[in-house]
Amino acid sequence: MRKIRVAPSILSADFAAMGEAVERLERAGADLIHCDVMDGSFVPMITFGSYMVEALRPHTRLPLDVHLMTVTPWEKAEAFARAGADIVTVHAEACGERLKETLRLVRSLGVRCGVSVSPHTPVESVLPFAEEFDMLLVMSVVPGKGGQKLIESTLGKAELAREFFEKHGLSPDIEMDGGVTEENAARVRGAGVNVIVAGSTVFGAADMAGTIARLRGEN
Ligand code: DX5
Ligand code: ZN
């Protein structure tokens, strides 16, 4: 049984005090720090770049899980790897025909490699490349902002992927990102997801540590 890990998204943190937010997440028992990079082209909003990852690196020993919601991720991945990212996830929609090449490039940087599919993208489109990535990120909301409602049909995508991986003797992580709450987390885990991203649920919680534990399925 894979260990369930929680990766709070700093998209919902106070951007004027990001270092403290990351230290608070580590104290509250987070397993990874999910860094939502938005470039204003792949998605309308702009959040931050590799300089933010570099600035946060000394504030935590937790893995930095960088979600590139950017165009031309093959041009951008190296800066994030150098900045201290442990995982760099690229969007299949941004890579197109260059997906396999981009996944190999990310791995060549010495970091774990993730591929993400937006809600409208069939997960079957990336399964042929399953040996090229360490994590599949199934977006459960349309990329671009936090605080949205989880799109139910995306659970089936995670289930399909997990069945495919098990059938082929592969065991990448499956991460789900967007609209995950304490109420739906059990169904998210039940769909074969083992890394849960949560932004607004964690930063909106009265008891951050308790919420993180409950998202993991504890107490
Ligand atoms: C969307 C972002 C959000 C964020 C999580 O582009 O990727 O999904 O990580 O946001 P919440 O947990 O607030 O839905
Ligand atoms: Zn994300």
Note the topology.
Layout: E1 5-8, H1 18-27, E2 33-38, H2 50-56, E3 64-69, H3 73-83, E4 87-91, H4 92-95, H5 99-108, E5 112-117, E6 135-139, H6 153-167, E7 173-177, H7 185-190, E8 195-198, H8 200-203, H9 208-215
Parallel strand pairs: 1-8, 2-3, 3-4, 4-5, 5-6, 6-7, 7-8
This protein binds D-xylitol-5-phosphate and zinc ion (ZN).
Residues 9, 34, 36, 67, 177, 197 line the site of zinc ion (ZN).
If you had to describe this structure to a student in words, what would you say it looks like?
This protein has one domain (5-216): Aldolase class I (TIM Barrel, Alpha-Beta Barrel), CATH 3.20.20. 34% of the residues lie in helices and 19% in strands. It is α/β, with parallel strands linked by helices and 219 residues long. It contains nine helices and eight strands. Helix 2 (50-56) links the parallel strand 2 (33-38) and strand 3 (64-69). It is globular and about 45 Å long. The mean pLDDT is 98. An eight-stranded parallel sheet has the order 1-8-7-6-5-4-3-2. The longest helix is centred in the C-terminal third of the chain and has 15 residues, at 153-167. Bound molecules: D-xylitol-5-phosphate and zinc ion (ZN). D-xylitol-5-phosphate binds at residues 9, 11-12, 34, 36, 67, 69, 141, 143-148, 177-180, 197-201.
